TrEMBL record:
Residues 11-96 form the Carboxymuconolactone decarboxylase-like domain. Coiled coil: none annotated. Gene3D superfamilies: AhpD-like. It comes from the Bacteria. It holds the Pfam family CMD. This is Carboxymuconolactone decarboxylase family protein.
Length: 159
């Protein structure tokens, strides 16, 4: 299957993409570790079935030193030993903040667990990373972007 549409061919969507990308660069500068940002983005993308975003975040995580073992186990993080307590709290938070269809949102227990591990800056960043990856998943799925085609640095034109 081919992508249905290139969002960057639309003048308005291209302007929005530049601003969206700039926001993601601001998040990278936060106190929330970049590796955790990539793991969270990967997990949300797996849940949403977005091959394009899974491709991006596996490659980006690899570039910053994330191990293949941890990347393979993100989908089964509850049943693995390679994630810290803080990472597990962030992954649980990601899942609940991504699966909103039932109207339940994030449980108090999950909120308390994530709050235990992250200060205001890191937690605010985590909320935005989750929101932005979910938006990215939806845009990518709407236009049928395909996993396996991402090349590192291809968003440089958006800077």
């Amino acid at each position: 299957m081919e992508p249905r549409f290139n969002l960057l061919d639309s003048p308005t969507a291209a302007k929005a993409a530049k601003r969206f990308y700039s926001a993601s660069l601001a998040l990278r500068e936060s106190t929330l570790p970049r590796s955790l940002q990539e793991l969270v983005s990967l997990r949300a993308s797996q849940i949403n079935g977005c091959g394009w975003c899974v491709d991006i975040h596996v490659k980006e995580a690899t570039d910053i030193g994330e191990t293949p073992l941890r990347l393979h186990l993100v989908a089964a993080w509850r049943h693995s030993t390679v994630f810290t307590e803080a990472e597990r709290a962030a992954l649980a938070f990601t899942e609940e903040a991504t699966r909103l269809a039932g109207g339940q949102g994030v449980s108090d227990a999950t909120w308390e667990a994530v709050r235990k591990h992250f200060d205001d800056d890191a937690l605010g960043t985590l909320v935005y990373v989750i929101a932005m990856i979910n938006a990215s998943n939806r845009m990518s799925m709407a236009v049928n972007m395909q996993g396996g085609t991402y090349e590192r640095g291809m968003f440089g034109a958006l800077e």
